[in-house]
């Protein structure tokens, strides 16, 4: 096992301080605690990642047992993210299938003009799926020892991720409703906004892997960080597919009529 590290405990403390500082700030107090905790969290995270790269790349401490722990940790992180998004999808579907009188008992609510899914959302779906395919191609090239081709494929995946974020920003700017427009607006922007944040995080992760590829940190037998980043990117792809199908396509129809039709058939 690797040597003991102060960074996990430090990160836990700074995360607690950041959450407490945010709650305090929202109640009208100073935001100093949140800002200092965020700075501390950033520095501690950077130092922890630096130590992990040194341990695995230069010192050879990442044995099979340690590597297995990394894979389990990444898997559990993705599982926690699945549960995170599940709660928001649940809220969206609950409101769509049982619209209340406050929104005229219809979905989408009265006065809401949803985004047409067969425009920018469809284009973004193609972009994100293409990015996932390029990330897979980069991994295949890495396993074949073709590092330059792996870097080129990863560049394509990163550019596609950046393009996705730009188009989403354009869609937000021109959307015919806001986050304050009933439960539809709240659910829409919470789901797409948190997914957009995950796209930004995933894009940064891919950029870090590209840098490490250029520094020759990876090989066909040593690529834990690279594979973990691709796992995360595919998770982002999967969430978008569900979001596109349920929110953009299914959620823009009249859910009451559809639900009544299903009940009639059953």
Automatic annotation (TrEMBL):
It comes from the Eukaryota. It is found in: Membrane. Residues 1-252 form the Heme-copper oxidase subunit III family profile domain. One of its GO terms (cellular component) is membrane. The chain crosses the membrane at residues 7-27, 70-93, 118-142, 154-175, 187-208, 229-251. GO terms for molecular function: cytochrome-c oxidase activity. PANTHER family: CYTOCHROME C OXIDASE SUBUNIT 3, CYTOCHROME C OXIDASE SUBUNIT III. This is Cytochrome c oxidase subunit 3. It comes from Polydora hoplura. The lineage of its organism: Eukaryota, Metazoa, Spiralia, Lophotrochozoa, Annelida. The gene is cox3.
